[in-house]
Task: structure prediction
Amino acid sequence: MTDTTILAYLNSALCDWQFGKICATSGTGTRRWIKQYIEQIRIPFPKPETERRIQQLAMDIGKVTSEEKVNLSAEIDKQIFALSDLTKEEREFVNNCVPIH
Result:
């Protein structure tokens, strides 16, 4: 798995929601990205064609306007949700719990 794919997952709505469940906060609402919590993140391994799609979307995010970034981020989330076999209801729940990226 490439660094780009890992970074795309770490910036996804699913990872944001998952990490919020396993990490401690600083007391001001800031999540503590420390080793004991990061080790608990489970990144699904995509098939090669899915990984290429996620990589392309992640690379494109740096080249577009803010409005287009929202759309690309949503497409990355869609790919990540598919990797995780989430139901439609589970995807909606995660999206409702996490602010738009």
